[in-house]
Design a protein that fits this description.
Layout lengths: L16 H22 L2 H5 L9 H23 L9 H22 L9 H29 L2
Helix pairs in contact: 1-3, 1-4, 3-4, 3-5, 4-5
C-alpha cells in the first residue's frame, strides 16, 4: 500500500490494480458468454428445454450482452477526461459486442444441440443498446461526482 501522496504502484501490465480489473473483466465475461452459448443446454439447465425459444431465453441474451457492452464502455470510457464517453467508444463497444453475438450464432449453426436464431441476435442487439445507454449514464454520473 502506498503512503498518502505517493503515486500508485503498477502491476505486470503497467496498470493500477483497479485498472487491471477494468482491462480484463470484459474478456472474462466474453469467455462466460461463449462457454454458455456452445455447451449443450442440458448441461446448464439439467434437462433439455421444451422449446428452442422463450421470452426468458431472450431476456437472458439481452442481459448477457448488456453487461458485456457496459463492461467494454467501462474499460474504454473510464480513461477519458470528459463526462460522456465519446461516440467512438460507444460505437466500438457496440460493434465489438454485436460481432461477438453474430459469431456465436454462426458457431451454433452447425452444432446439433444448438441453432442459429435471429431472435437471439435481436435480443443480443437490444441488450447491447441497453448496456451502452446505461453505462454512458453511469460514467456521466461518476464524472459529475468527481468534478470532471
Amino acid at each position: 500500500m502506498n503512503a498518502p501522496g505517493e503515486p500508485a504502484t503498477t502491476g505486470a501490465l503497467g496498470l493500477r490494480p483497479c485498472s487491471r480489473w477494468r482491462h480484463w473483466t470484459p474478456w472474462l465475461w466474453t469467455a462466460v458468454i461463449v462457454i454458455v452459448s456452445v455447451v449443450p443446454a442440458e448441461w446448464l439447465l439439467g434437462a433439455a428445454p421444451e422449446r428452442s425459444w422463450s421470452v426468458l431465453a431472450s431476456l437472458a441474451h439481452a442481459f448477457e450482452f448488456a453487461i458485456l457492452a457496459g463492461l467494454i464502455v467501462w474499460r474504454e470510457g473510464a480513461a477519458q477526461t470528459k463526462a460522456w464517453p465519446s461516440a467512438v467508444v460507444l460505437l466500438r463497444a457496440g460493434a465489438t459486442a454485436l460481432l461477438l453475438a453474430l459469431l456465436i450464432e454462426v458457431v451454433q449453426w452447425p452444432l446439433p444441440y444448438r441453432s442459429f436464431d435471429g431472435r437471439d441476435l435481436a435480443a443480443d442487439a437490444a441488450g447491447i443498446v441497453l448496456g451502452l445507454g446505461l453505462s454512458a449514464v453511469a460514467l456521466r454520473r461518476a464524472a459529475c461526482r468527481s468534478g470532471r
